[in-house]
Amino acid sequence: MSNEGRKNKPVSFNTTDEHELALLKHAEQINPLTEKPRNFSKYVKRLIEEDMKRSSGSEIRIDKNEPIIREEESYSIETKEAINSFI
Questions:
Q1: What angle do CA 62, 68, 70 make, to 5 degrees?
Q2: How much is the average pLDDT of 11-32?
Q3: What is the value of pTM for the model shown?
Q4: Dihedral through CA 71, CA 62, CA 83, CA 77, nearest 10?
Q5: Which of 1, 24, 31, 78 fits as disulfide partner to 13, beta carbons 3.0 to 4.6 Å?
């Protein structure tokens, strides 16, 4: 198969970091239907596709080194005041 027209994006995992090692092990799981290793490239592409579908609404970004950021939704002043009264 020719690599013409293809772009490779390598992903590295720090195997001394417990969180990243857990991500790697999950990505390398055996497919129970085929009993073969998961196709990493296809798996990542599906995750990206799901992320693209979710991004049309309220998006949540998670990074273990940063706080969770919820993109601002538009609320009326009354709604914001009601929400703040519960906090």
A1: 105
A2: 94
A3: 0.55
A4: -10
A5: 24
The CA–CA distances, whole Å, from 11 to 20, 24, 56 equal 11, 10, 26
Phi, psi of 76 (to 5 degrees): -70, 160
> What is the mean predicted confidence (pLDDT) over 25-47?
90
Give residue 19's identity as a one-letter amino acid code. H
Task: Give the residue, 52 or 80, on which the prediction is more confident.
Answer: 52
CB burial string 23-40: b at 16+ within 10 A, e below: ebeeeeeeeeeeeeeeee
Contact by Cβ (8 Å): 38, 31: yes
Cα–Cα distance, 82 to 17 (Å, whole number) = 42
